[in-house]
Amino acid sequence: MGKLTKVFSSFKIWVYIIFFIITLAAISPNPWNSGVAIRNVDLNSTAELSGIKSANPNEVPMVRERIISINGNEIKNVEDYNRILSTIKVDSSVNIVAEKSQFMRKDYNNYAFRAVGDQNLGMTVYEAPKSNIRLGLDLQGGTRVVLSPDEKLSKDDMDLLIDNLNQRINVLGLSDVIIRNSLDLTGNQFIIIEIAGANEKDVENILAKQGKFEAKIANDTVFRGGKEDITFVCRTSADCQGIDPQFGCQESAQGVVCRYYFQISISQNAANKFAETTNKITVLYDGGDPSGSLSEPIDFYLDDVKVQSLNIGGGLKGRPETSIAISVVGSGLSGVDARNDANDRMKQIQTLLITGSLPVKLNIIKTDSISPSLGKEFLQNAMLIGLLSIIAVTAIVILRYKKWKIAFPIITVITSEILLILGVAALLKQNIDIAGIAGIIVAIGTGVDDQIVITDETIGKDDDDEYKFLSWAQKLKKAFFIVFAAYAATVASMIPLLFAGAGLLKGFAVTTIIGVTNGVFITRPAFAKLMEILVSDDDKE
Predict the structure, then answer these.
(1) Residue 417 and residue 535 in one domain
(2) How far is the C-alpha of 375 from the C-alpha of 465, rounded, in Å?
(3) Which of 64, 94, 127 is at the close of a domain?
(4) 499-510 pLDDT, tens per residue?
(5) The pLDDT of residue 352
(6) Domain limits at 53?
(7) Fewest Cβ atoms nearer than 10 Å: which of 105, 267, 443, 524?
(8) C-alpha to C-alpha distance for 421 and 518, rounded to whole angstroms
(9) Among candidate residues 306, 302, 308, 305, the one with its CA nearest the CA of residue 212
(10) 229 in a structural domain
(11) Cβ count within 10 A of residue 495
């Protein structure tokens, strides 16, 4: 009991235990999680109209909404979902029960609608996640596209281009999408788009069109996005955008409603077309606004899909105004939520007005499409390789030291380091792909090497006269000098890989850095203390 007391009274071991618990909570493993998780909901589909929403890409996997029942039939997996779906006839009633986890609470939502011919009810689903570990395209299936702009872009232009692509993908109801820019070591610019669960054709359809933005009133096009009609959109100045001073935020039955506005300028030709069209429309008065509003809204279309409708003030009827204030309303349970919602909606419209079409032509450099079944096979093979690696290391360590009290801590730390890496990756919302798994293997290999160095430097050289009379602390100091030198060399060698190959090796570099950093600052000190308690005390006895 003396050694056990020393183990649990050590600060270094408690740091290790606390971090282990935190990462385990971040992973939130639940192998019994059933149902199918909702990934994408098609725009204007029966599912969307009933209130079902696409998954929020910022949500951790375990809190995503899961379908657990359709028309009273329990749904445990994708096979059940497809089987029940095949029995639903056109114009028949559909009742879906979905579950959404919120920390320690579970919320249940009921969605009722009629099937109108969508083969999948307008939804894309996947197997309910078993943990918060985010799998990359290599492991869950999907499409990755590497694009290169036709010309060199500034940071602002690149941000504008990525905003446009994000908006276009949001219009299509897709989630689990990663869009990021990357530079290679020679300074070439790339845009990498990863869409989980999508096929190559879906992605090419999104990227093939440069994009068409139109503003219509009563089905008449009054102006189009781009420099020809839109001469200015306020985005950064507080003088021409912000909360509407005439409306502000007001309480409603559902919470709080806030109205934001921003100014745009259109060309004179567009203004004349706007005046001509609005002059034919009547003005409605609701009593709240003395100027009223036109009976027809202005509708915004992206690639012929309506994405937003805004009311037009009655004072603008028949006037060729080149400066127009557009209002956007947001709602929420609190004032902060409502303001954030209105601000987000305002930014979306601003992006549409500026980037109705892509500002630059994009060339497709590379396209990788992986089926979900192949991704599942990759994952199974990776887990098998990891298990075999641990067994091989265990056998070698036992043969080398021939003492369980030395071998057991090494093997325990190896296993826990895998969970620590996955937990930190979950906290950082880092996807784990094939390259990431390779990084985990490298980090674990480095960890085994460090532990063998610590073991050999402390107990493996007792026959050496130079080491025989050194204290345990002096031996550890020598061991950790080697460990930190190896750590610095590893991190330095990984930094170029963050940018190499258009960033496609980033997963390998990030997981390797996470693994060796966890090891040097958390598991190595705890391992050294454990070895001191288990071995040094025996030497004294």
Answers:
(1) yes
(2) 55
(3) 127
(4) 776 567 788 888
(5) 64
(6) 36-127
(7) 105
(8) 7
(9) 302
(10) no
(11) 11
